[in-house]
Description:
By secondary structure, this protein is an alpha/beta fold. It is 37% helix and 18% strand.
Amino acid sequence: MKLRPRQADFVSRVLTALADKGNTLGVAPTGAGKTVMLSSAIAQSRKKDKPFRALVIQHREELVNQNRATLRRVDPDLASDIYAADRKKWSDGVTYAMVQTLSRPDNLDTMPAMDLVVIDEAHHVAASSYRKILERARALNKNVRILGVTATPERGDKAALKDAFCNVADIISIRELIDAGHLVRPKTYVIDIGLREELAGVKRTISEFDMAEVEAIMDKSAVTEKVIEEWRRLAGDRKTIVFCSTIEHARHITQALSDAGVKATEIHGEMTDTERRRSLTDFEKDKYQVLVNVAIATEGYDCQTIACVVLLRPCSYKSTMIQMVGRGLRKVDPEKHPGVIKTDCVVLDFGYSLLTHGGLETDVVLDPIKGKGMTKDCPSCEMEIPAGCGTCPACGHIFDAVERRTQEVKEREALADFVMTEVEIMKLSPFQWETFWGVVTMANAMSAWAAIIQHAGVYQVICGKDAERVVHLVHKTTDRLQALASADDYLREHGDKDAARKTKRWINEPASDDQLRYLSTELNDFSMTKYRASCLLTWTFKEKLIRAKVLSV
């Protein structure tokens, strides 16, 4: 089985990190071919002339069979077996184990020494069952290598992944896969049915919203009627998966859909394994148009023909939302589904999760050249991560300026859930921003200054210190929000907030005679403040340097 170029690059980075660090985490979303890359990493880890034992840990039975079948296609010569409740066999090659079975003390005692341990869906690794297995593996072989692969690394409960992994080798983003044509594009709609304030008041448990409270708000006939109406209008005859708050909620939605003439089935934790498999099989065979789900078909579920995702519950964590939406982003294999055409996926969000989390990206796209081999340490969890990350994939620490400003506002209760705007960034800034001639925005922080210049379709952030006769290009972008946030970052680091804070009284006082004397007549007016005059004077003194820098880029 031949890897795509990006998959081969991912495997190469993972193997390099394993050799250098002894452990690593690889992040790859739905549709990246995670199982293929995981299998290839295992196959390439062994030396043909030496004994090699690997353990792959999963938490769901479907993943065990899926991963083992993929390994056979990648490396038919590599032996494998299964360690689960109904079969407990250790292979001389690769053993695929269910974490629930292997973590029991009597089963762990039978475990042989491993050269490599692979954790599928590695965001679960902080759980005690996984820790027990890793402790046993390290006790048997202090040089055992640990590889984790996941689509959504950040755990909702913020439990650190650092005990298992000290670094992130690579991140494949959803945007990469969409741009490369490996996933379909989501068409997202946040549908306001008048419940936003009520849902915002729902209390949270340790790991999620209180779904009983969510049910009390959303499980009403009037709400359900509106949901079905909007779904029919925007999704039409698309194959759909619905995520509900509780089992009772799912039952009511399923019944309402059936009463409206829509073929729908449900799946939830109170059903037997046989019943769940039957519902999934019938849905995949198109006996039903809609699958109504409660916490089952979220992580790792693969049905390529799903073309609409409906969120009838809020998501406390972005990783949960991404898992749900990801169920509808897979492309359709024409050999498996002849005649089925799928070019996008409609996402209907009735729980306002997209407003809360802002999008589907777990991180930025790494530059394939500049990003390779370059790393930085997260200041919150100390994980070594690729230099291009805007958010730490392990703990959620935000590096990106706009995202950080967004988070600052979200943490203020009165301003929760909004779309970030230029006005919000300016409100957050300790400095006052002035605009001149419609193309220059400046702030003066006494010991430093920053200017955002719009030129030739892009925004350039030119900054400097008052005491220096040099200017610096800090940022260049087509996104004005990014430019403004970067300029604000520069001033926060180099400027004097105490002297230039926009709450200072002198900021709004009339310009002094000395200031007015230095300003040209066309820049002068009777409403000129001391602060605005200081910005204009900085521009006057630095204009030649700024223009030269702008035109040289």
